[in-house]
């Protein structure tokens, strides 16, 4: 039984045991493009990945299942070397603590995503980045494009071309990196982790 066969069983919910950690060779491979038309197996895997993100962001479910909160997941992190990512970025509450009108600023399962355009300007998260496949804190700025345009297919095989900026752009780039065998800390300046190059936006 392949890793994907196990993950897509009807009774299985993706958990932390399914996520491979740094050092595993699959995380350094360039993932294969997903064949078209999409197979039921690949559609189910994408939906299970999104379900994991929802579960990880629900305090009760996350505690019950022992999940670390995540806003993105790539198939290679599940030992499935295919170009599939899921991103789920919640909108914050307003200043009075009311829930946002739209629950998510980004909710997408992307098949064969690719960055087709990007800004020269770069951005990095003030607190650095973390990863479900990395069980340690790696400090330092991770410079990425501040704005990107991504083409991808949805589960119906329809093509989308979407612009992302700010935090959402960082999340999508982090996940696409996984499809290319790149870890977030590969982008940190090892000698000077918090050095800021001219013009880089630091996002809180």
UniProtKB/TrEMBL annotation:
Taxonomic superkingdom: Bacteria
Cofactor: Fe(2+)
Keyword terms, alphabetized: Hydrolase, Iron, Metal-binding, Protein biosynthesis
Transmembrane portions of the chain: none
Record's cofactor remark: Binds 1 Fe(2+) ion.
Reactions that this protein is recorded to catalyse: N-terminal N-formyl-L-methionyl-[peptide] + H2O = N-terminal L-methionyl-[peptide] + formate
Gene Ontology MF term list: metal ion binding; peptide deformylase activity
Protein name: Peptide deformylase
Organism annotation: Streptococcus hillyeri
């Amino acid at each position: 039984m392949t890793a994907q066969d196990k993950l897509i069983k009807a009774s299985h919910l993706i958990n932390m045991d399914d996520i491979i950690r740094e050092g595993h060779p699959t995380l350094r491979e360039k993932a294969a493009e997903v064949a078209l038309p999409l197979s039921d197996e690949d559609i189910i895997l994408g939906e299970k990945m999104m379900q994991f993100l929802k579960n990880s962001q629900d305090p009760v479910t996350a505690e019950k299942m022992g999940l670390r909160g995540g806003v993105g997941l790539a198939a290679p992190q599940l030992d499935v070397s295919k170009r599939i990512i899921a991103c789920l970025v919640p909108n914050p509450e307003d200043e009075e603590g009311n829930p946002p009108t739209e629950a998510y600023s980004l909710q997408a399962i992307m098949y064969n995503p690719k960055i087709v355009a990007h800004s020269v300007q770069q951005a990095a998260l003030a607190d650095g980045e973390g990863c479900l496949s990395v069980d340690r804190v790696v400090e330092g700025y991770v410079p990425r494009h501040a704005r990107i345009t991504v083409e991808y297919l949805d589960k119906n095989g329809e093509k989308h071309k979407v612009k992302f900026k700010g935090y959402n752009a960082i999340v999508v780039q982090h996940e696409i990196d996984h499809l290319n065998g790149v870890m977030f800390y590969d982008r940190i300046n090892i000698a000077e982790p918090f050095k800021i190059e001219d013009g880089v936006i630091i996002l809180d």
